[in-house]
Amino acid sequence: TYSSSSSSTSSSTYTSTSAYTSTYTSTYTSTDTSTSTFASASAQSLIVGIPNAEVVPKGHVLLAHESQVNWWNQVNERGERIIAWNSFNFGCYGISEHLELCLTSFNIGSPGSGNVSLAGGFKPVYPHFHKEAADWEIKLVSGLMVPFSLSGNGVGIWSYSAASFRIPLLRTRITAGPSYGTRQIFGRDVFCWMVGYEQPITDKFSIIGDWYSGTHDIGAYISALQYDVNEHLTIIAGYKFANNAESGYNTAMVVISVEF
User: Fold this and answer.
1) Cis bond upstream, residue 111 (ω within 30)
2) In whole angstroms, what is the distance from residue 88 CA to residue 255 CA?
3) Which position among 36, 88, 212, 239 has the lowest Cβ density within 10 Å, counted as fewest Cβ atoms?
4) Which residue from 211, 229, 209, 4 is spatially nearest to 111, judged by alpha carbons?
C-alpha cells in the first residue's frame, strides 16, 4: 500500500508499502543429505512490498487486504491528533506455472491520499541453473503494471526485474533488482533498487522483510512476521521504517490473504 507524502501528493498523511503473500509447503534435500520441510515465505506475488520469486498456482486466485495505520504522531490541519489509515487491495490469478495476472488498488484510506489509483499487470518468474546449482534455487523475476489514476493524475507505469536465490542449509531467500515507476504509485517518477529476504523458521512461521531505496512514496524498509494459518490463509504483521521524512511516516501494518 502506498500513500503519498511527497510534494506531488502533499495531502497524504503517511506512506505505506504492502505485503500480500500466500504459502505452500516445499520439501528439499540439503547438502548433508537430510530431508527437511519448511513453509515457503512467499508462494505468491510479493514479499512484503517488493515482488517475490513465486507465482500463484495455475487456476488459483489470491485475494489480499492490507491496512497500514499510524495513531501516535499524525495530526490534521488544525493540529489535532488523528488516526491515519491507508489500505491496499490485491487480486491475482495464476495463468501458468510461470505467469500470474494482477489487479491492485492503491491508497484508499482516511484522510484521503489524493493519489488513488487502480493498476493491472503481470509477473513472469522462471527458474535458471536448476541442474547446475539446484540447491540455490535461482530464479529471474520481471513484471509490469499500468496504474490508472482515479485522482486525475493520468496513466503511468511500473516495471521491474530481479534475481532471486536461496542460501543452502539456511534456506534464506534473497531477492534484489531495479525498479522504475511513475507518480501514480511512487508519488513521482523514480528509478530505485529493491531488496528483500524470506527466512522460514518453522512450517508455519517466517521472518520476512524488504526495502525500496530512495526518496519517494514507498521508500521504506519493512520488517514483518508471517504466519500461515493453513494452505489457504496467511496473516502478516509488520512495521514500516520510512527512509526519510519526505518518504512519509513510520506505520504499523497487517495483511490478510486468502488463496483458493
Assistant:
1) yes
2) 9
3) 36
4) 4
C-alpha cell at 48: 512484503
Bridge partners, residue 46, by sequence: 51
Distance from the first to the final alpha carbon of the chain:
23
Q: Taking Cα atoms as reference points, which of 63, 85, 65, 83 lies closest to residue 73?
A: 83
Burial letters 38-71, b for 16+ CB under 10 A, else e: bbbbbbbbbbbbbbbbbbbbeebebebbbbbbbe
Does residue 41 contact residue 199 with C-beta atoms inside 8 Å? yes
Given the C-alpha cell 535458471, which residue does it identify? 128
| Model pLDDT for residues 93-110, shown as the tens digit of each residue | 999 999 999 999 988 888
Conformational region of residue 49, where left means phi above 0, alpha means psi within -120 to 50, and beta covers everything else: alpha
Q: Radius of gyration (Cα) for the chain, nearest Å?
A: 18
Cα gap 31→187, rounded to integer Å: 46
pLDDT per position as a tens digit, 215-252: 998 999 999 999 999 999 999 999 999 999 999 889 99
Residue 43 C-beta-side C-alpha neighbours within 13 Å: 27
Supply the pLDDT for residue 226. Answer: 96
- Backbone angle region of 187, left / alpha / beta, with phi > 0 → left and psi within -120 to 50 → alpha: left
| C-alpha–C-alpha distance, residues 50 and 195, integer Å | 8
Output the pLDDT for position 44: 58
Query: Which of these ranges, 36-40, 133-137, 176-180, has the smallest mean pLDDT?
Result: 36-40
* pLDDT confidence of residue 24: 39
pLDDT band at 30 (very low <50, low <70, confident <90, very high): very low
